[in-house]
Structures are given as C-alpha cells and as structure tokens.
Known about the structure:
Layout: H1 4-20, H2 25-36, H3 46-59, H4 73-83, H5 87-108, H6 117-136, H7 146-160, H8 162-168
Helix pairs in contact: 1-7, 2-4, 3-4, 3-6, 3-7, 4-7, 5-6, 5-7, 7-8
Amino acid sequence: MTTRRDAIRAIAAIAALPLVEKLSATELGEVWRRANTLAEPRALTAAEYQIVVGAAERIIPRTATPGATDARVADFIDVMLADWYDAPDRARFKAGLGELDDSSVRVTGRKFVLARERQQIELLETLDRELSERRQKTEAGADDHWFAVLKHLTIWGYYTSRPGIVEELRIQLVPGRYDGNAGY
Length: 184
C-alpha cells in the first residue's frame, strides 16, 4: 500500500528537475546555510512565516520521520523567496498566503494558524483540487500559482534538508571530500 509520504517521495525528484539547472549543489548548500542560520524571516512577515510553517507541516507532517517543521522548510522557503524569486513572484506568493488566511477566517472563523489541524488540511486540500483542475485544463500560469509554488518549495526544501535526506530517504552522507591527488 502506497502512503501519501511515499507518493511525495516519488514525485520529489521529478518536482526538483526543472530547478536543477537554476540552482547548483553549491548554491543549494548556500540556501540551506542561510536557512539554518536565519534569525528572523527576510521575505515574509512574522504572520506570513507562521502560515508557511503550518501549511508546510500539513503537506509533510511529522510521522515516524521528521516533518517539514523539523526540517526547517519554512526557513528554506523564506530564503528562496528573498534571494531567488523576483518581486512580482514573491508578491504573488505573499498575496496567496493572505488569501489562505482570509479563506480560513470565512470557513473556520479563525486565521489559518489558529484553525484546527483538520480544518487546515481541508483548506489546503481544496487549494490542491483547484490547482489540479487548473492543470488538467492546461490553464496558463497554473504552475506559477502561489499554492503550486508552496507545494514545490515544501517538497524541494524537505527532500534537500538533512532530516529529509538522512532520516526520510535514509541516504548516508559521507563527511569530508574526495581528493584524488592527495599525497600518501
């Protein structure tokens, strides 16, 4: 039986393929270095950051392995938005977070971060269905929709984080480097 996490793991590599050319391993390492030393969000307000934390954790929840929060995915997303996304894309993403919060108030009577976990999941599943419909209709810009960006960055951030690599994918990271010309 395939679990949701198995499905996410399977598409993680595919989802990251378009960005492989845009971000080298060294640059990705630098994004994670910045994310791991982030004192406060740079691209997001404190309220927007908390929405990203909650949404990312609902996309990749903690189970027997770490979730998005454990992997500091929100910090990864903030660094990506600050350093790699241009102002219009960043503004569209932030506006989407505001829409999610407004939708949550209409549906649950509470802001997204204060809604119950089940309510948060239902709100995100609604967005996911709408995004799937847009993609099936091959609507222009469907992949640029703020929720598509959130999902993409969540999955990419998680599966390139140390907890995602070591504890979820169980890939053993080898310390040090290989130097073929080392003297002996």
